[in-house]
Amino acid sequence: MGETLRFSVSIDSDLLERFDAMMRRKGYENRSEALRDVIREALVREEWAKDQEIVGTITLVYEHHKRDLSERLTAIQHDHVNAVLSTLHIHLDHDNCLEVIAVRGTAKRVQQIADSLIKTKGVKHGKLSATTTGKRIC
Q1: What is the phi-psi region of residue 8: left when phi exceeds 0, alpha when psi lies from -120 to 50, beta otherwise?
Q2: Average pLDDT value for the chain
Q3: Cα–Cα distance between 79 and 76 in angstroms, integer?
Q4: Which end of the chain is more exposed for a tag (fewer CB within 10 A), N or C?
Q5: For residue 119, which phi and psi values (nearest 5 degrees)?
Q6: According to the model, what pLDDT value does residue 127 have?
Q7: Reading across the β-sheet that carries 84-91, which strands appear in turn?
Q8: What pTM value is reported for the model?
């Protein structure tokens, strides 16, 4: 990690007021902490845009009684065995399951895997939550 530097920023008063309100809602103790997170978020979005290696989770909710659905979801994961790191399967109730799949790969590949799982007939809801590997961010 590099040395901590101070710098000044010129900003519209209304924008700063909104930033301060957001900062308080999220529980930041000071503007520096909040600004660091805003910058990191922008850098993570840039990793996505440049199709760099990312990690994330694909969360699925589905009815496990749907014919062959579990097998189809598993087959998709096996088709991407180098990107699928782990799977957590939870029985939510008699009919519904939650599956959380940890993935790693280029942004494009992870998005393609998520899309193929989420669009599988019988999946009630799916979402990709992706982040950085941490290699390029302090």
Answers
A1: beta
A2: 94
A3: 5
A4: N
A5: -80, -5
A6: 97
A7: 84-91, 96-106, 53-63, 123-132
A8: 0.83
Cβ contact 117:123 at 8 Å: yes
**DSSP class per residue in 37-92:** HHHHHHHHHHHHHTT-EEEEEEEEEEETTSTTHHHHHHHHHHHTTTTEEEEEEEE-
**Which residue is listed with tokens 């598993």?**
74
Residues 104 and 52 sit within 8 Å (Cβ to Cβ) = no
What is the model's pLDDT at position 131?
93
Query: Angle at the Cα of 42 (from 59 to 17), degrees rounded to 5?
Result: 105
Question: Does residue 85 contact residue 104 with C-beta atoms inside 8 Å?
Answer: yes
pLDDT value of residue 48: 86
> Cβ(62)–Cβ(118) under 8 Å?
no
Rounded distance between C-alpha atoms, residue 1 and residue 103, angstroms: 27
The predicted pLDDT at position 79 comes to 97
Domains in the chain (CATH in brackets) are: 13-49 (1.10.1220.10), 53-132 (3.30.70.1150)
pLDDT tens profile 58-75? 999 999 899 999 999 999
pLDDT at 42 over 70: yes
